[in-house]
Design a protein that fits this description.
34% helix; alpha+beta; 160 residues; five-stranded mixed β-sheet; Aminopeptidase; 5 strands
């Protein structure tokens, strides 16, 4: 099996971040929603107040996977956690443990920082990912449903 390395993304990785985010959007049949620009990602990941982090996996020096994450807070534990927004491994490199290594790295970060949780969501049709997550010890929070306000509804809620 070809070895891989993990590293935090840098500003020079922005084209890779965008390429892999768009590939993920295609895979999830949501390409129409992937409209983040290089400027948007630069501000979110490397701006004055970064709002997210990103990790890149490389095989033989070539980027093949991306993980985007951010910190959360639990009022019940009074501790932070990490939310994994997206993990995408290029199809030719799946099944090599890359995604699991990314989750393991973030789990270690949560614990090293004194945090309490590592969380994410998965599309209900993505059976391979769900099986992999169960094998890592993840459990579904079946009694919770995700809610979202965006677009015009977000503007309306904000009073615009």
């Amino acid at each position: 099996m070809t070895p891989f390395t993990l590293r935090d993304a840098t500003p020079s990785d922005l084209p890779t971040v965008i390429r892999l985010v768009r590939a993920l959007a295609e895979y999830e049949k949501l390409a129409h929603e992937a409209n983040g620009t290089a400027s948007d990602f630069h501000e979110a990941l490397f701006g004055e107040t970064p709002r997210a982090g990103a990790m890149i996996a490389e095989v033989a020096g070539a980027p093949v996977a991306l993980c985007v994450w951010y910190r959360t807070f639990s009022t019940f534990t009074a501790r932070h956690g990490i939310w994994v927004e997206d993990v995408f491994v290029e199809p030719d490199f799946r099944g090599r443990g890359i995604a699991k290594a990314m989750f393991r790295t973030l789990a270690r970060r949560v614990l090293d920082e004194g945090g309490a949780r590592l969380e994410w969501s998965v599309l209900d049709w993505n059976a391979p990912a769900i099986a992999a997550y169960r094998a890592m010890g993840a459990r579904a929070l079946d009694s919770w449903t995700m809610q979202r306000v965006d677009g015009a509804a977000l503007a309306t809620l904000a009073g615009d």
